[in-house]
Amino acid sequence: MPLTDEFSPFSFGWGIKVRPYGRSSGVGSSGREGGKCVVGCIFAPYFDSEQGAAHFAAVHKVFGASNVSKLLLHIPVHKRLDAVVTICYEAQARLRDPVYGCVAHIFALQQQVG
């Protein structure tokens, strides 16, 4: 049974739908392949280093740049860095394990504890 927008596990409050990994369009953050952020880009403060480019690529592939930018606009500026760090972590975890994502890491830690 295909996922619909109403019952998708990738839906959040605010009407933002997050695409499952593997269905991104492949464009850069500015809308051009491999482009730089334009002035006022919401991603610029958080994805500015060489490592930032890799993190942005993961976030874009898993969630879509448009969806993440809409999400960040709903978060107060002083909390956005924490949100970006969390989104990056989850995107990288989803690329490693598309089914469980970061929960796989939690399960592994639980196994170590007992």
UniProtKB/TrEMBL annotation:
Gene Ontology annotations for the cellular component aspect, listed alphabetically: nucleus
Residue ranges annotated for the LOB domain, each copy included: 25-114
InterPro entries in alphabetical order: LOB (IPR004883)
Gene Ontology process terms (BP): hormone-mediated signaling pathway; positive regulation of DNA-templated transcription
One of the Pfam families matching this protein, by short name: LOB
Similarity field: Belongs to the LOB domain-containing protein family.
Protein name per UniProt: LOB domain-containing protein
Organism: Chenopodium quinoa (Quinoa)
